[in-house]
Design brief:
The chain is an alpha/beta fold. The protein has 10 helices and 12 strands. The chain has a domain of 199 residues: NAD(P)-binding Rossmann-like Domain (Rossmann fold, 3-Layer(aba) Sandwich). The longest helix has 26 residues. The protein binds NADP nicotinamide-adenine-dinucleotide phosphate. The site of NADP nicotinamide-adenine-dinucleotide phosphate (NAP) has 29 residues, from helix 1 and strand 4.
């Protein structure tokens, strides 16, 4: 199969390239060569490569920046998916479009989770733009899967875990305040790439939730990860109110992978199992990056 991966230098795109390359002909595309907001450019990429399947991992993912850089946020997250969906339809290609837990408002009481059938109601520009992107895909694609995930981390690119490690390594005595009243399921981009492979193999369509099993807070996640990394740290839990950010975030974005279970293809692991495996597999590289990052600050 010929598979076009967009956003291929990001966390998930990089892991999708690793997972699909051995068995398929993969075109890994990203900025600056391929800009998904350039409709004519997108059409050229499709016409040249003629993919059988497309995995869109490209997105404007800086949630707080989306509040002010709204033009770019909507161009990448909402309008570009329509270009991809139309181009995929022209080539009869299957489109996997990746979306987010932040399409929900998070008002359900913890630990109640969001299923695919729950009505989205985003509370941030990022969430609203990603929901618009989902709808653009549904309206324009011929065969598609919209895969909603959450709290991604991976070896390639920046994420919350890497930030925590850099801060802890930089000054182990420094008190780090971490939000302890937002609940979700941290998801390893490598595991999600394996899940996307199953979705493509089975040809599952429509909206599918794909996050790790279990749930915790950002504080739980940081503590567990830094313990796995065997570094000294000084974490203190705080509330969202004590740590205000430009974008509102859902207090509960726990997703239920109901459709994956029904299809018999849920390969997602418990979040702690995956964080431990991620730390073990990449410990040397993560520490090296964290120390280099700290030195350059
Ligand atoms: N990260 C999370 O916690 C999280 C949570 C839930 C859902 N998701 C969703 O999961 C998917 C993958 O996320 P991720 O964490 O892997 O993202 P990421 O690491 O930020 O990677 C996104 C990639 O897309 C590229 N990109 C941005 N604008 C582009 C454009 N106009 N044309 C082509 N490529 C462009 C980025 O390039 P630059 O780096 O050069 O901008 C980057 O390589 C996204 O759909 C995201 O919304 C992420």
């Amino acid at each position: 199969m010929k598979i076009l991966i967009l956003g291929a230098r990001g966390q998930l795109g990089n892991d999708c390239s690793l997972i699909f390359s051995p068995d398929h002909r993969v075109m890994a595309a990203d900025l600056p060569e391929t800009d998904i907001t350039d409709q004519a450019g997108v059409n050229c990429v499709f016409d040249d490569f003629r993919p059988d399947a497309v995995i869109n991992c490209a997105a404007f993912t800086r949630v707080d920046a989306c509040e002010t850089e709204t033009g770019m946020c909507w161009a990448v997250n909402a309008r570009a998916p329509a270009y991809l969906a139309r181009a995929a339809a022209r080539h009869h290609a299957f489109l996997v479009h990746v979306s987010t837990d932040y399409v929900f408002d998070g008002r359900r009481p913890v630990p109640e989770s969001y299923r695919e059938t729950h009505e989205p109601s985003p509370v941030s520009e990022y969430g609203r733009s990603k929901l618009a992107g989902e709808r653009a895909v549904a309206d324009n694609a011929q065969k598609y899967a919209i895969v909603r995930t959450a709290w991604l981390y991976g070896a390639c690119g920046g994420n919350f875990l890497k930030t925590m490690l850099r801060l802890a390594v930089g000054d182990p005595g420094k008190t780090l305040r971490v939000v302890n009243d937002q609940f979700g399921s941290a998801t390893w981009s490598y595991r999600l790439a394996c899940q996307i492979q199953k979705i493509l193999d089975k040809g599952c369509t429509g909206i599918l939730h794909a996050t790790s099993q279990g749930w915790g807070t950002w504080y739980d996640l940081a503590r567990f990860f830094l313990t796995q990394m065997e570094v000294d740290f000084n974490l203190v839990p705080c509330t969202t109110e004590e740590y205000p950010t430009p974008a509102l975030r859902p207090a509960n974005s726990i997703l239920d992978n109901e459709r994956l279970r029904q299809e018999g293809i849920d390969v997602m692991e418990n979040w702690e199992t995956d964080v431990a495996q991620f730390a073990a597999r990449h410990k040397k590289q993560l520490l090296k990056e964290a120390r280099a990052g700290f030195a350059s600050v």
